[in-house]
Design brief:
Elements: E1 2-7, H1 9-14, E2 18-21, H2 26-37, H3 42-45, E3 48-51, E4 54-56, E5 67-71
Parallel strand pairs: 1-5
Antiparallel strand pairs: 1-2, 3-4, 3-5
């Protein structure tokens, strides 16, 4: 089981703060989040992913006990 945490506007938009799930990859975790929140999986694909404190990718693998943090990409100039 992995812990999935949402931060920033992504948390506000989905109303989710944290959830526990069985997921073997970031993409699988995003699919589970999409089902749980009723949002399109594509909305999560462009997030910033942090796995156990290190930057990850949408294609990154997850292992038992991992913490996955999703943050909305920031904008600005």
């Amino acid at each position: 089981m992995v812990t999935i945490k949402l931060f920033g506007s992504l948390r506000l938009k989905t109303g989710f703060k944290e959830m526990q799930a069985y997921a073997s990859s970031v993409s699988e975790a995003c699919a589970l989040l999409a089902r749980a929140t009723g949002h399109d999986k594509k909305e999560f694909k462009n997030c910033l992913f942090v796995i156990n404190g290190k930057q990850g990718k949408y294609s990154s693998a997850l292992a038992e006990g991992d913490e996955l943090v999703l943050m909305s990409p920031s904008g600005g100039g």
